[in-house]
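Reading a protein record of the kind used here takes little practice once its layout is understood. Each number in the token line that follows is a code from a learned vocabulary of backbone shapes. One such record is shown here in full, so that the layout can be seen directly:
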Amino acid sequence: MATQVQASLTDGQETTAVLLTAGSFNLSISGTFTGTVTVKRSPDNATFFDVETFTAPTEEVGTDPENTYYKVGYAGTGTAVIRIGEYQGT
């Protein structure tokens, strides 16, 4: 089973951190919202760094050469629905 986290976020909330193994991962952002979704990365699950921001629904595929912790935060109005997990494509 793939490692993933899913959450419906409102202003000021974050997902729990998820450890993604080296390789590709998916990010899905949906919902009805006006605000900023921020993807954060950490090598140690203690100190997180902002790596990307989004202001609209999107589907993305990213890569990371290391086992790395990720979490996603949201600031704005409405609800941003987030899913981040290991890539299941072929």
Observations:
- Strands lie at 4-9, 18-20, 23-42, 49-54, 58-64, 68-86.
